[in-house]
Amino acid sequence: xIGEILNNYKITKLSNGIRVASExxxxxxxxxxxxxxxxxxxxxxxxxNGISHFLEHMFFKGTKKRSAKRISEDIESLGGYLNAFTSxxxxxxxxxxxxxxxxxxxxxxxxxxxxxxxxEKELKKEAKVVIDELHDIEDSPEELIFDKxxxxxxxxxxLSMPIIGTENNVSNFSRDDLKNYISKNYNVNNxxxxxxxxIDHDTLxxxxxxxxxxxxxxxxxxxxxxxxxxxxDNYTYKDINQSHLIIGGTTFGYNNIDRAAxxxxxxxxxxxxxxxxxxxxxEKNGIxxxxxxxxxxxxxxxxFGVYLxxxxxxxxxxxxxxxxxxxxxxxxxxxxxxxxxTKEYIKGHIQMSMESTSNRxxxxxxxxxxxxxxxxxxxxxAEIDAxxxxxxxxxxxxxxxxxNVTSVLISSNNLLN
Length: 417
Description:
Distance between the termini: 61 Å
Structural class: alpha+beta
Largest sheet: 7 strands, mixed
Mean pLDDT: 94
């Protein structure tokens, strides 16, 4: 057992390889507990695309000791809740509750992860639920367009595949498929127990050693590092009134310190009502109710873009305004006032999010999985403060270069041609 203490964080690597991390917060009476597995849709192939997400659902459908209903009742009867999410690079099962119920929550999560039975009847029923979720995405252009965008810009890498998978795959997953995927990917080297709140670290370690005894050892697979390909603009027909557009490309991932500059550029352009695109599109020209930038980051790459929806008559004008703002930030140095405002906006949102134990636990999880350490709040603030106006100018010319920009449109007409 190896232990490490940093600020309020404690990290222990058990002899079997599982890492346990905690943050003690004395002034709250609750906790957020997460079981993190470093596997997601990026680790799939076309044939089983969607299995990570489908497994997330099936872990809640019953164990040797608990029915699906009892899994919920055992936690909700104590005032807590359970949930989970799947991303392209990891899966997390988490619970929240009052501090005296930490062990009970740990037991239920451990039971789900180690002793789910994956009953064939439940498997078929849940497949229908996930397919309904898939259809909901297809019927929601504001969601679908992000899958279309990443399919286009990540072409040639498994990052291009949607987390939810395909209807054919989901319909045909078998119990053996799930068991084999767990055997290959849910191993001690991939597994993290992370908690934030009024908890004792040594107690968390004790529970891990006592209840997580069924996590196996297996060889970690290496992920294929992203290599950029030329991408083409993409159009999808939908019989809808509004047109939905993303203009963007790729930028630095978590493994590159320059990601911080891309994040600041994203905020300058489209985060908040005082951002450049909100002001130029909505306030000055009365175009686009929905307008924002986004940055979806992975270990070695991030997707970056501007998303907007507007009526067909205004689409070309909206696109031209966005491209004009791209040009402006590449050619004219940002003022010290705007840069300071943007930095304070980013830092303020980070610090306000830290008032939630769930957000703190999520931040710890991302930090451990991407940096193999817990990045302190002070480190994050320092990275943002270090960005200069010269950095913005330099990185804008890379990030917003026309050769790096792809347009993805969902509309009843391809009006950008």
